[in-house]
Design brief:
Blueprint: H1 8-14, H2 17-46, H3 49-53, E1 56-63, H4 65-71, E2 78-79, H5 81-88, E3 95-109, E4 112-125, E5 133-146, E6 149-164
Parallel strand pairs: 1-6
Antiparallel strand pairs: 1-2, 3-4, 4-5, 5-6
Length: 172
């Protein structure tokens, strides 16, 4: 039997410009969708409100209640960008944090998308790194395409496990 030799002319004919455009758009969308979640984490960790704000739509909803309840804390749903910003960038925020994102899954449907990910979030009091709260959370995110790229419209965070002191998150 003769060796298989691919017909490169047939291959290039199959890759019409419309298909290439669609594939590139899908890949770009997926990268930008994941980047919205990464901007959230980086904005918090670097204390950069500009990066942080770019991750959300103005009418975004951030629901951290499942995590808070598991930790024995009360944190209401943050409804709207101002409420989200007020919680994460208030004068009482006295934490050093790192957010690491993994297991990202994305489903794109036109100008809307869903993303799930596992996020490990380390929280340490700025002046006492001997204490900590390490959270392993599942993020369920709804995103929309905006004039400046993809942004999170709804973020629900559920805790998988944690270790450390829940009071660290409350600033105690």
């Amino acid at each position: 039997m003769p060796a298989f030799v691919p017909n490169t002319n047939a291959l290039s004919a199959d890759l019409d410009s419309e298909l290439v455009h669609d594939v590139v758009r899908e890949l770009r969308d997926r990268a930008e969708i994941a980047d919205a979640l990464l901007r959230f984490g980086l904005g918090v960790d670097e204390r950069d409100p500009d990066v942080f704000t770019s991750a959300f739509t103005p009418d975004a909803v951030f629901d951290f209640r499942p995590v808070a309840e598991r930790l024995g804390l009360e944190i209401p749903v943050m409804d709207g960008f101002d409420a989200i910003l007020a919680v994460h960038f208030n004068d009482g925020w006295n934490l050093d944090t790192t957010h690491s994102v993994t297991n990202v899954r994305i489903a794109v449907d036109g100008d809307e998308a869903r993303l799930t990910a596992i996020v490990e979030a380390q929280h340490l009091p700025k002046h006492d790194h001997s204490r900590h709260l390490l959270l392993k959370n599942r993020y369920d995110v709804e995103l929309v395409r905006t004039g400046s790229g993809w942004a999170m419209r709804h973020l629900l965070v559920k805790n998988v496990w944690f270790t450390g002191e829940p009071k660290v998150l409350a600033g105690e």
